[in-house]
Amino acid sequence: xxxxxxxxxxxxxxxxxxxxxxxxxxxxxxxxxxxxxxxxxxxxxxxxxxxxxxxxxxxxxxxxxxxxxxxxxxxxxxxxxxxxxxxxxxxxxxxxxxxxxxxxxxxxxxxxxxxxxxxxxxxxxxxxxxxxxxxx
Length: 136
Description:
Order of helices and strands: HHEEHHH
Number of domains: 1
Strand order of the largest sheet: 1-2
Largest sheet: 2 strands, antiparallel
Low-confidence stretches: none
Mean pLDDT: 86
Strand content: 5-15%
Helix content: 55-70%
Distance between the termini: 46 Å
Shape: globular
C-alpha cells in the first residue's frame, strides 16, 4: 500500500489520456468532445471539452505533487525517480503517438516537466535548510 503513495499522480493522468485517445470506441471519446456547456450572462457559451478537464486535473495533480515534494525522507528519491519516468513517458507519447498529438496533452506534458523540475528544486532547498553547518 505504501507503494501507491509514491505513485505520481501524473501517472494516473497519463493513463487517462491513453484510455481516451487509444480507446477502441473510436471518436466517441475524443479529447475535443464537449462534456459540459453553459450559457454565460454575457451570452457567450462556455464549453468544457474532455481535454480541458484533463488539463484542469493536471493543475490539481501539480498542486498535490508539489506538496509531496516538501517532504524530506529517503522516499523522496523514489518519488523523483518515478516522476522522471512519468515525464519521459509523457514526452515519448507526445512525440510518437499520433492520437496524443493534442494541445491538451502538450500542456499536461509541460505540467509534468514543471512537477519534475520543481520537485528537485524544492527538495534541494528543503535539504539545504535542514542541513545547517556552522561556520567557524
